[in-house]
Design brief:
There is one protein chain. The chain is globular. Helix 2 crosses helix 3. A two-stranded antiparallel ribbon has the order 1-2. The chain is mainly alpha-helical. A hairpin with a 2-residue loop joins strand 1 and strand 2. The protein contains three helices and two strands.
């Protein structure tokens, strides 16, 4: 079972595209080449979105 669920995540953003882009950008920020243990960056980014700890802003050129 995936945590958090897709249903919860889609309530936090306006589309699946936004979810993917926001999670990918945050995961890149969390990536640390020295640390491979613990929660994976994408999982952590999705958890932050579900907990409303990650805010995004749509712009004409993408997500900021």
């Amino acid at each position: 079972m995936n945590k958090p669920s897709l249903d919860i995540l889609l309530k936090k953003v306006d589309s699946r595209y936004t979810l993917v882009v926001a999670a990918a950008k945050r995961a890149r920020m969390l990536t640390n080449p020295e640390s491979s243990a613990g929660t994976k960056p994408v999982s952590r980014a999705l958890e932050e979105i579900a907990a409303d700890r990650l805010q995004y802003e749509r712009t004409k050129s993408g997500i900021k």
